[in-house]
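From: lab user (bench 3)
To: helpdesk
Subject: output format question, protein + magnesium ion

Hello, I'm new to running complex predictions and I'm not sure whether the block I got back is the full result or only part of it. Here's what I submitted:
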Amino acid sequence: MHRTISIIGSTGSIGTQCLDIVQRNPERLRVVAISANSNVDLIVDQARMFKPKMVALADESKLNLLQQALSDSNIEILGGEEGVCACASHSEAEIVLGAATGIAGLKSVLSALSEGKILALANKETLVAAGDLAMETAKINHAKIIPVDSEHSAIFQCLEDGGIQNVEKIVLTASGGPFRESKRSELDHITPQQALKHPNWDMGPKVTIDSATMMNKGLEIIEAYWLFGVKKNQIDVVVHPQSIVHSMVLFTDGSMKAQLSLPDMRLPIQYAFTYPDRWPFPEGRVDWRTPQTLNFSPPDLEKFPCLRLARQSLEVGGNAPAVLNAANEVAVSLFLDEKIQFMAIPEIIENALDHLSGAAPKTFDEVVHIDQMTRKYVLNARKRNTLNL
Ligand code: MG
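Helpdesk reply: Thanks, we reran it on our side. This is the complete output you should expect:
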């Protein structure tokens, strides 16, 4: 029996690693739909290899290239956000991998949840900006969310036998990124090339910059809050540079559970498809025959203000997490385009949070409104030079 999957974001880092899992398990997994933002060449190769029933490209300006390239196939080809949502809600897909980057993935995530799918969630930004809406949509439609983020997959695995009422703390581990050992003064002159070199994980550019600022861990605190239904003060962060312990749960009796493995995103992706079962994955084992050192230390909030800002936005509530997410997305792309310095990222976010308070979004349109308002505010503030950047 095949499990049927739809992949939203098939050409990105998570999407291509997912297809590697499919290739290793042809008798167990079948791809029924794939969608990407704009990488025509790669999605055409993927369509030829995995023969899905539906392919969608969010960037409609390139749709005719996709149509031409697949004109000899009988694959249904769609464009725009609606096309991507059609992939996410495809009637034959049992599991939907939500692996688009950023808030752009929200509508497809909501489409999958509205159809009561099993959502393998790799897009943390949707829970940060629209946690209430996404969890409510899942509840109403009896959809199940299985986390693919490695930390949240670890927590999910630690909680497999239930017992959330017995949890005292969730402890998210953080690699600390490429600047864990850098001095605060050195961070002013970081280039995008330096920030894109993550020591342990090979990921897309957005999440890699988020790891360098530690905003990634901040977003993951908010993600954990929505996924596991714990209180805001029950989520801790500890820096663990080796990325072997992927997260931990502290129970009320003081006992702790952790999930360990080599850092390889294919494990949490595969587990989302096999849960509650496990399938073999032959690559990569921790080698206990050689000495191993696992270090843990508290995060430096002075050096990484993004972590403090994310926690603050969760405490404040209302529209703050959505503003935080949007301001961060703009700031990261400005940094990647070499328009701002690395340490301007938290300044931009803090400034937006200080000026744009409001109620929590209840609908998709309200999330989009907060997102666009924040992007506009950040870009205008930059133009007026009211930010000291
Ligand atoms: Mg993660």
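A quick orientation on your result: The chain is about 45% helix and 15% strand. Let us know if anything else is unclear.
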